[in-house]
């Protein structure tokens, strides 16, 4: 199994996703600031993985504190949490993980410093391990939506690399493949930083799941040809009504799916669902550097002097979504009712 990031020898170890697929290497972060930087520059990316990285990074920062007085411990803990909360704005899992670490800290504050450190490391490791287990449960639910012989389009990377391991949307595909279903995956390259071409394609080759890489603008043509009969994507934040923020380009695919009568599915853990947000227009959308549009891997591909607009995500209204797959089950319309019911199980 692909392990994206984990705790080892009092450090956070993560697969460097910026180097894939040409180089497979793990980086060791000894300071929490290195984990924050890794989240910002996409060394680690994907909503669940960002949440896990934040939990591990918070534990790392506290574990390395020299001044262990209660006042400084508390001050530094909340400062570290704040640094992670400012790293990326859209993924709900990031804030979910920070809040969970805060809750644990408040439960144990007052214990000896070494016990606080130990408990925070244990909580971060628990979040990491739970993420993998959640993804496997999600895959077990989601594979019921996939039939033998299906051709499935996916966008961006919602696989093991976007999580602590196994994956969300790609986890559903992986579970169907493990079940013995003969499927074929079409992989959108996913402009502008090619998470599909670099990461999803790498995972599928590694897992020996039959797949074909396409440019983003080929998807509609393939649907018209009847070459795609299911679409499944991940999510970075889901509103209470089912509106879903995911990698830019997802909304276009949902519209195309609707026009061609193709089921459009979302797979995400409950930690991605934000019940405090009623609808998608309330979801904060991250805008990233122009350089991701005008350059690729440091090489300029657009003329000097041109400006660029680079929203990292778009929002797909729930009316275009057939079902949302979670570890607690599958939600369908009316989503407000079915999503709320998932949290009562």
CA-based shape:
globular
Major sheet details: 7 strands, mixed
Please report the number of helical segments.
11
* Unreliable segments of 5+ consecutive residues: none
Strand-and-helix sequence, N→C? EEEHHHHHEHEHEHEEEHEEHEEEEEH
Helix content: 40-55%
How widely separated are the two ends?
Answer: 29 Å
Structural class: alpha/beta
What is the CATH class name of the largest domain?
Alpha Beta
How are the strands ordered across the major sheet?
Answer: 6-5-4-7-10-15-16
According to CATH, the fold-level topology of the largest domain is Rossmann fold
Taken together, the total number of domains comes to: 2
What does this entry look like structurally?
- The chain is α/β, with parallel strands linked by helices.
- It has two domains: 5-136, Four Helix Bundle (Hemerythrin (Met), subunit A), CATH 1.20.120; 140-342, Rossmann fold, CATH 3.40.50.
- The protein has eleven helices and 16 strands.
- The chain has a seven-stranded mixed beta sheet, with helices on both faces.
- Strand 4, helix 6 and strand 5 form a beta-alpha-beta unit.
- Helix 2 (47-63) runs parallel beside helix 4, helix 2 runs antiparallel to helix 5 and helix 3 packs antiparallel against helix 4 (92-108).
């Amino acid at each position: 199994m692909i392990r994206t990031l984990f705790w080892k020898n009092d450090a956070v170890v993560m697969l460097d996703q910026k180097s894939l697929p040409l180089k497979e290497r793990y980086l060791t972060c000894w300071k929490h600031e290195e984990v924050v930087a890794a989240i910002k520059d996409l060394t680690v990316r994907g909503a669940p993985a960002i949440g896990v990285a934040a939990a591990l990074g918070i534990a790392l920062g506290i574990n390395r504190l020299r001044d262990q007085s209660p006042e400084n411990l508390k001050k530094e803990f909340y400062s570290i949490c704040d640094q992670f909360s400012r790293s990326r704005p859209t993924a709900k899992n990031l804030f979910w993980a920070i809040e969970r670490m805060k809750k644990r800290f408040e439960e144990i504050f007052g214990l000896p410093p070494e016990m606080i450190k130990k408990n925070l490391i244990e909580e971060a490791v628990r979040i990491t391990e739970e993420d993998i287990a959640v993804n496997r449960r999600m895959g077990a639910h989601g594979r019921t939506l996939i039939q033998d012989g299906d051709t499935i389009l996916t966008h961006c990377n919602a696989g093991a690399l976007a999580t602590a391991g196994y994956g969300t949307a790609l986890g559903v595909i992986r579970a169907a493949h493990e079940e013995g279903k003969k499927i074929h995956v079409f992989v959108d390259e996913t402009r502008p930083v090619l998470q599909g071409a670099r990461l999803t394609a790498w995972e599928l080759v590694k897992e020996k799941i039959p797949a074909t890489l396409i440019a983003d603008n080929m998807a509609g043509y393939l649907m018209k040809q009847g070459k795609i009969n299911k679409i499944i994507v991940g999510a970075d934040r889901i509103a209470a009504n089912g509106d879903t923020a995911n990698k830019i380009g997802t909304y276009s695919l949902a519209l195309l799916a609707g026009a061609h009568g193709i089921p459009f599915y979302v797979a995400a853990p409950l930690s991605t669902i934000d019940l405090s947000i009623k609808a998608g227009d309330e979801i904060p959308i991250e805008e990233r550097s122009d350089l991701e549009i005008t350059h690729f891997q440091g090489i300029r591909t657009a003329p000097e002097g041109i400006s660029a607009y680079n929203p990292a995500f778009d929002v797909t209204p729930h009316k275009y979504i057939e079902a949302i797959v979670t570890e607690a089950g599958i939600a369908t319309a009316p989503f407000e009712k079915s999503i709320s019911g998932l949290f009562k199980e």
